[in-house]
Fold this protein.
Amino acid sequence: MNLTIKSANELLGLPRQNKMTMYVFAFDVDGTLITNDDPKRQNGVVSSNETEHVDIVYLLKILSKCFKNITIVVWSGGGEQYARTIGCRLGIDQYVDKFMSKIDYKLLCDKYNVIAIDDIQDTALGNVANLIVKMK
């Protein structure tokens, strides 16, 4: 005798999938995680408390902690090392899976479902969605 227990969603006839779809959320640095015009940045001082973009930093942390099918990338046109440096200064490196240069966006999009979060509205680096922050 073969007894199969159906899940609540299956009983309702809702769509199902056998494998979780993975997504990459790629956060830009300048103008997105940190403000472009903070005078303190000229001295190399950057923290999430000193930026008006605290909500975006918080979003990054929430996505990282609460969802198992998300990878967090922080990238910058200034390169991987710059993105890593700012990530460490913001104290978000523990939430970030990978730091990258934006120049390598195609490598990411060729392999993954990418949702890019940026401050520049004509930027289209994500292959799923391009979300533009309001703080500019």
The chain has a mean pLDDT of 87. The beta strands are 23-28, 70-76, 98-101, 113-118, 129-132. The chain has one domain: 20-132.
